[in-house]
UniProtKB/TrEMBL annotation:
Domain of life: Bacteria
Residues in the signal sequence: 1-24
GH26 domain boundaries: 32-366
Active site residues of this protein: E189, E297
SUPFAM superfamilies (alphabetical): (Trans)glycosidases
Organism: Flavobacterium cupreum
Reactions catalysed: Random hydrolysis of (1->4)-beta-D-mannosidic linkages in mannans, galactomannans and glucomannans
Family, as annotated: Belongs to the glycosyl hydrolase 26 family.
Protein name: Mannan endo-1,4-beta-mannosidase
Protein's UniProt keywords contain Signal: yes
Gene Ontology CC annotation, any one: extracellular region
Length: 379
C-alpha cells in the first residue's frame, strides 16, 4: 500500500482513517511524528518489510565512526531503513563515559531521523545490583529484577537509570526542533537464561512488574513521548499461550517481536519451518490486537551461505502473508574477521544481497519519504 501526498487521493484518506481509528498505540500523548511512524509501520507491514542492521552507522567491518557510512550503504547505495543502537552504555560507567556515549548515539539518531530512517534501541543492561555486565554468571550474578521493581532495595537506583534514558530521549531533536521517534526494546530474549533478567532468574510477576513500571515511569512521570515499546523473547515458545506467558499487557506494549537466530542457520542448523511458525504467531497476535509486529533480531554469522538472503530469509518473510514491519540483522564487528551479519564489499553474499535489496518486497532507507508524516511515499 502506497500513501501519497494528495488530498484528493482516496487511498490517502483510508490510510489516515486507519491510522486514527485502527492502530492501538499505548501512549496517547505520543508526539505527532511517533504516532505517524506507528501508523506507517503498520501500513508498510501489509505489503512490504523494512530492512534493519544493528549498529549500522556507528561502525562496520574494518571501520568505525565515519560520517554517513554503513556497510549496507557501501553495498547497495542505501543505508538500512532501520538502524539499531543500544543503551548499554547508559549505566554502570562513569558520568563522563555515559555523556560520551550519549553524544555519539545522539548524533547517529538525529542523522538517521533527518535522512528519513528509523532507529530501534536494544538495551544490554548492566546488572545494577552486582555491578557486572548483562550476561548471567553463576559465580557472581544477582537476580536483580526482584530488587529493582517498586519496593525493591535498588528501585531508586533503577529510577535514576531510567532518568538517564529519558534525558537522552528528550535530547534527540533534529534541525526542525522535533524529537526523533525510537523503537525501544528493553529486556529482550527474556525467555532465555543468558541475561540476568532471564526467565530462570526472574519470576513472571517480577518481570511483568518491572516492565510495567519501566513504561509507565518513562511515559507518565518522565514524559517520554517519542518511544514505541517492543516486546521480544527468543525462541522458547511454540504457541501463542507460551509467547504471551510474560506479556505485561496491551497498555504496555506496542510491538510484538521475535529474536531468532537458531532456526535460520546458526551453527549450520536450519529449522525454517519452526521459525516461520513463530513469526506467524507474532504476526497473528499483532493483527488481532491492532499492534505492530517485527522480526527484531536474526541473521547468519559470517553469512557462509551465499544465497541466504533470498533463499532462506526472503522466502520465509514472504510466506503466509506475514505482517512484519521490519527485519533486523545483528552487527558487523570492527575487528573480527568472522563476526558480521550484513555483507560488506567483497563478501560472498553480496550478489544475493543485491537481489534481496532489489526485490520490491524489501524496503531500505532510500525507499522511504515522509515516514514521520500522515502522508508518506514508498518509491
Amino acid at each position: 500500500m502506497k500513501c501519497i501526498p494528495d488530498k484528493k487521493n482516496a487511498l490517502l484518506f483510508l490510510c489516515m482513517i486507519a491510522g486514527h481509528f485502527l492502530f492501538a498505540q499505548l501512549d496517547k500523548q505520543a508526539t505527532r511524528e511517533t504516532k505517524a511512524l506507528y501508523r506507517n509501520l503498520k501500513l508498510i507491514s501489509k505489503k512490504h518489510i523494512l530492512f534493519g542492521h544493528q549498529h549500522a552507522l556507528e561502525y562496520g567491518h574494518g571501520w568505525s565512526d565515519e560520517a554517513d557510512r554503513s556497510d549496507v550503504k557501501s553495498v547497495t547505495g542505501s543505508h538500512p531503513a532501520v538502524v539499531g543502537i543500544d543503551f548499554s552504555g547508559f549505566s554502570g560507567h562513569s558520568k563522563e563515559e555515559i555523556e560520551k556515549t550519549a553524544a555519539l548515539l545522539k548524533k547517529n539518531v538525529i542523522a538517521t531521523y533527518e535522512r528519513g530512517g528509523i532507529t530501534t534501541v536494544s538495551w544490554h543492561f548492566r546488572n545494577p545490583v552486582s555491578n557486572e555486565g548483562f550476561y548471567w554468571k553463576d559465580s557472581s550474578s544477582v537476580a536483580a529484577m526482584a530488587l529493582i521493581k517498586p519496593g525493591g532495595s535498588h528501585h531508586e537506583e533503577y529510577k535514576t537509570i531510567l532518568k538517564t534514558i529519558a534525558d537522552f530521549a528528550h535530547s534527540v531533536k533534529g534541525k526542525d526542533g522535533i524529537l526523533a521517534p525510537m523503537i525501544f526494546r528493553p529486556f529482550h530474549e527474556f525467555d532465555g537464561d543468558w541475561f540476568w533478567w532471564g526467565k530462570k532468574y526472574t519470576s513472571r510477576e517480577d518481570f511483568m512488574a518491572v516492565w510495567q513500571f519501566t513504561v509507565a515511569y518513562l511515559r507518565d512521570t518522565l514524559k517520554v513521548h517519542n518511544f514505541i515499546y517492543a516486546f521480544s523473547p527468543d525462541t522458547r515458545f511454540n504457541s501463542e499461550t507460551e509467547y504471551l506467558e510474560r506479556y505485561p499487557g496491551d497498555d504496555f506494549v506496542d510491538m510484538f517481536g521475535l529474536d531468532d537466530y537458531g532456526d535460520f542457520g546458526r551453527d549450520g542448523k536450519y529449522n525454517v519451518e519452526a521459525g516461520l511458525q513463530r513469526l506467524t504467531i507474532i504476526s497473528d497476535v499483532a493483527i488481532r490486537k491492532n499492534k505492530l509486529a517485527a522480526f527484531t533480531e536474526t541473521g547468519l554469522e559470517s553469512i557462509p551461505d551465499a544465497n541466504w538472503w533470498t533463499e532462506t530469509l526472503l522466502k520465509t518473510l514472504k510466506s503466509k502473508k506475514l505482517q512484519l514491519a521490519y527485519v533486523l540483522v545483528w552487527r558487523n564487528d570492527t575487528t573480527s574477521p568472522t563476526h558480521f551479519y550484513a555483507p560488506f564489499p567483497g563478501q560472498a553474499s553480496v550478489p544475493d544481497f543485491i537481489n534481496f535489496y532489489n526485490d520490491p518486497f524489501t524496503l531500505f532507507e532510500k525507499d522511504l519519504i515522509d515516514v514521520y508524516d500522515n502522508k508518506f511515499i514508498i518509491k
